[in-house]
Specification:
alpha+beta, 411 residues, Ubiquitin-like (UB roll), 9-stranded mixed β-sheet, globular, L-amino peptidase D-ALA esterase/amidase, homodimer
């Protein structure tokens, strides 16, 4: 990370002019918050990327239409518990109803309100509870950092930790802030983007460049994580930019755009890593870093294949250096290579060890390897010796709790 | 299945002229058999399909070379415990040594001996134990059905049940027998073929047609199962035909070839289903049958996506009708369709229930759905209403025991 970018406390309310609120609307959960509202005092340019799943949730259809229309956006309303997916026309009508409720309370247009949902697929949202929740949210907005965290907590499902970050950097000598929040943690295998992540910034930037930056950064951040290989029906990544920093507007690519791109990369990779490390049932953030690949796309494919394998994930959970599973996952990734020219290392705070090279196992201590794999963050380093391209993918181990959570999810 | 094909007892020793043996060679396991030998009294034409994994085990490299050379084959020697994968030149030398040992005891050529291994990747096989094992196997060959079952049991790893089948049918009025055995049960996501499966027949058939038939049948049998999405380094499917039935040789496509193709399909689907149902930790055989697809390839892709999803698998384990996960898995399969035109049913011996249609959930009893999902064999029926193509894929549920088995596999 460049020293021009500094991490600061906060999340979606870190940037100027953004407020948030959370409430317990009893959509499906009891005794916890389950609705959140993020609002900008000024109109925002907005960019978004959405799930590539053919089965798209109603809020994804609603948001995509608004983002593609290119109008200004001012609010995001989100709920947890029910995903509003596989809900037909009734589900779409509920998105419009939500947007209209928010719009009437904030005196803005329904077309400037984005909606998002996460939870069980196939159930309908309860309209009366949504309305009551929105009334409550609109009357309790705050620009405090705590309000941002509260909003993030309200959209968590099986997440165990809230995920937020904010950074600051200067454009034309003026400080600009970019913050964001995200939630996982099951059905995570983003293709176009992640489950739910909302970013806010007081940067002034054209809509075209904002969308371009988001598309570019998502490739090496959210699209490089996987918890269980299931690409959700609801994946939504949104960024709202309201221009309140006072910094000059970015309207072309150049050093300012490059700096923003790096700040966005920092924020997205941080949230993506947090999502992977807090995957359902996870006890370990399992990272695979591939170097020496012949193309960037091959590097990404190889890294992702390793962290997606049920067998490598179970190996990490068991702290068992059954390294052949890593080679196996590289081998079926679809990328062609010579196994005799691959080097594999495992690394963690417990140390670093050379496991495989020249076509077979290196001499290493099983005890030392097991110690390295017992760390809460384990990295598999793979050098392909084929070129200069690199990629990193983030996943997690496969534990009893993943099964427990997903066998009992609705009960 | 046509009434021209009858299932009979037995496996690899059911066909005329085939013998088998098993022994405890102490390769890695204690207190069980771990080496098997299958031998034909006559030279056989042979066909095979092998793993598509770039990282191929040494016995895969050995066998592929022999099958492609097109010579006659007379024996298969196999071991469990160590996979002889990621073992470099030393691993290949051990395959040749095994073939030479078998050849010298049976007075055949080393090039007519195929080898196969399954177990831990990255460890070297112990040469002395292999030699002693082969000596023992060669002196205890038998054509009894029990010998076939014993050979199958010797190559099991985490399998809980032996998998074998035999069928008989008539060619030119003469009874012909086709039998086979297979082992799973982890790292199962065959692309070219399955983990290890050996088929034997006393049919007379040209090598070209035998290979063609095997390639065709594998598409809708072994290639349609998945336990954990990991395509092994060792997948090997072999068929040996010794011609001893006395039936006229099949040398061209026609009714006889079609009947053989159907018999081969019966045997391969049976073994594939058994492999899926005995997946690591499985409590349920989970089948997805897709009908009404626009192309055969799309039908296969959709069916496989459903049985490969960690979330559908956990849902089956929990007997929880969280049907949105099935829609979600169809949606990210890569096949394009309109979710509003899909019908989904669940079926088992417990009954059949219409779950989803017209874009949202149907009215159904959760209690009844849960009862259907509690069966040891559950079928998800998906009608795409786009065409007339169909496909069936077989998988299993995801249980605590899958994690337990794979976190502790080497210990």
């Amino acid at each position: 990370m460049s020293d021009q970018i500094k991490i600061i406390p906060g999340g979606v309310t870190a940037a100027k002019g953004f407020q948030a609120a959370a409430t317990a609307a009893h959509i499906k959960y009891k005794d916890r918050t389950d609705m959140a509202l993020v609002v900008s005092s000024e109109k925002c340019v907005c960019a978004g990327t959405f799930t590539s799943n053919v089965v798209k949730a109603a809020p994804v259809l609603w948001d995509r239409q608004i983002v593609e229309a290119g109008g200004f956006v001012q609010a995001i309303v989100a709920n947890s518990g029910i995903a509003n997916a596989c809900t037909g026309q009734e589900g779409l009508d509920l998105c419009r109803m939500e947007a209209e409720e928010v719009a009437s309370r904030l005196v803005i247009t329904p077309e400037s309100v984005l909606t998002a949902s996460t939870g069980v697929i196939g159930m309908q949202l309860p309209p009366d509870r949504l309305k009551a929740g929105i009334e409550d949210l609109a009357s309790s907005l705050s620009d405090s950092l705590e309000a941002g965290t509260a909003a993030e907590k309200a959209i968590m499902t099986t997440d165990t930790r809230p995920k937020e970050i904010a950074v600051t950097f200067e454009i034309g000598g003026v400080p600009v802030t970019l913050g964001g929040m995200a939630k996982g943690s099951g059905m995570i295998h983003p293709n176009m983007c992640t489950m739910l992540s909302f970013l806010t910034t007081d940067l002034a930037i054209s809509r075209e460049l904002l969308q371009k930056a988001l598309r570019e950064v998502v490739q090496d951040s959210f699209n490089m994580i996987s918890v269980d290989g299931d690409t959700s029906t609801n994946d939504t990544l949104l960024i709202l930019a309201n221009g309140l920093s006072g910094a000059p507007e970015i309207t072309s690519e150049g050093p300012d755009y490059a700096l923003f791109l790096e700040a966005l990369h920092t924020v997205c990779c941080d949230l993506a890593r947090k999502m992977a490390g807090d995957g359902e049932g996870a006890t370990c953030l399992f990272t695979c870093r591939v170097t020496g690949a012949d193309t960037k796309e091959h590097a990404r494919t190889l890294a992702k294949s390793v962290i997606c394998s049920s067998l490598t994930k179970a190996m990490i959970y068991g702290h068992d250096c059954n390294f052949g599973r890593v080679l196996c996952a590289l081998g079926y990734s679809g990328v062609s290579f010579d196994p005799a020219h691959v080097d594999l290392y495992f690394e963690s705070t417990g140390g670093r060890i050379h496991i495989y090279g020249d076509g077979s196992a290196k001499e290493y201590s099983e005890e030392e390897a097991s110690k390295i794999l017992a760390d809460p963050e384990v990295i598999a380093l793979v050098d392909m010796h084929m070129g200069a391209e690199e990629a990193t993918a983030w996943g997690c181990d496969l534990s009893y709790d993943y099964v427990k959570i997903n066998a009992d999810y609705r009960s």
